[in-house]
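User: C-alpha cells in, sequence out, please.
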C-alpha cells in the first residue's frame, strides 16, 4: 500500500506537528508513505471565494503530484471533500478520477481502509470532540442530529481506544464552530459569535483539550480561547492518536 501524504497549506505553515503526527501514525501501521514536495494548496480558498474557474492550474498541480499512489491521505476533512467534489478540468482525466475515488481524510482512512481496532496511544486528559462540518456532513464521519439515524462517530470510535482519555459529553455535539474558511473573514462578527458559543460548550464541561479532524476549525477556536486567556488547548486528533 503506497500512500501520498497531502498536507494542507495552513498545517504546513502553522501546525507542522500535525503533519508529522499523521506521518508517524500511518507508519506505525505499516503504511508506505511519501510526501510529494511540490504539492501546493488544493484550491479551496479560491473556490470558496467564487473563483473556482481559476483553479485549473492548481488542479493540474495536484494531479501531477498525487498520481500513482494507491491512496491519498490528509489530516483535513474540508480539503479532502474539496478534492472529492471539485477536482476537475485537469489535463489527465483518468488520473483525476482515480485520485478522487481514493482520497481519504485520516480518520476515515484509519477506520474504513486500515480498519484499526487497537491503539497504543495514551492521553490522560479530559477532551472535547468537535465534529467539523465538512467531515461530518460531507464525508459522513459522524451521524447528524437533524437526521433520524443511528448515532455513530468515527473520530469518537478512535478516541475511545486511547488509554486514559476522558471524552466529555457536549450539549450540542455537531454544531458548527463558525470558521467556514473565508466566511470568518467576510462575516467575522457572526463567525466569532458562533466560535465563542462552540468553545463555551467545551469549557462548560471542563474540557482540558478540544480536538477535531480539521485543524482549521481548531485554529479558529484557538484564537478565541487565547483572547479569553483560557487554559484550554486545541490539539488535532492525529496528535492524540499518536501520543505516548
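Assistant: Sequence out:
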Amino acid at each position: 500500500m503506497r500512500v501520498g501524504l497531502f498536507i494542507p497549506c495552513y498545517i504546513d505553515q502553522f501546525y507542522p506537528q500535525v503533519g508529522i503526527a499523521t506521518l508517524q501514525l500511518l507508519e506505525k501501521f505499516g503504511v508506505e508513505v511519501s510526501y510529494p514536495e511540490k504539492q501546493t494548496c488544493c484550491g479551496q480558498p479560491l473556490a470558496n471565494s467564487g473563483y473556482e474557474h481559476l483553479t485549473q492550474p492548481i488542479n493540474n498541480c495536484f494531479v501531477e503530484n498525487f498520481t500513482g499512489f494507491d491512496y491519498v491521505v490528509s489530516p483535513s476533512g474540508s480539503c479532502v471533500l474539496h478534492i472529492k467534489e471539485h477536482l476537475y478540468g485537469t489535463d489527465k482525466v483518468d488520473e483525476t478520477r482515480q485520485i478522487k475515488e481514493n482520497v481519504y481524510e485520516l480518520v476515515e482512512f484509519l477506520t474504513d481502509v486500515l480498519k484499526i481496532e487497537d491503539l497504543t496511544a495514551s492521553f490522560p486528559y479530559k477532551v472535547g470532540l468537535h465534529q467539523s462540518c465538512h467531515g461530518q456532513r460531507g464525508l459522513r464521519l459522524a451521524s447528524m442530529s437533524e437526521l433520524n439515524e443511528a448515532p455513530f462517530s468515527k473520530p469518537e470510535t478512535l478516541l475511545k481506544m486511547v488509554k486514559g482519555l476522558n471524552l466529555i459529553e457536549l450539549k450540542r455535539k455537531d454544531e458548527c464552530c463558525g470558521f467556514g474558511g473565508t466566511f470568518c473573514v467576510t462575516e467575522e462578527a457572526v463567525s466569532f459569535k458562533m466560535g465563542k458559543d462552540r468553545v463555551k460548550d467545551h469549557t462548560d464541561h471542563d474540557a482540558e483539550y478540544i480536538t477535531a479532524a480539521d485543524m482549521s476549525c481548531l485554529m479558529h477556536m484557538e484564537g478565541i480561547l487565547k483572547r479569553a486567556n483560557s487554559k484550554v488547548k486545541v490539539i488535532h486528533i492525529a496528535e492524540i492518536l499518536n501520543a505516548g
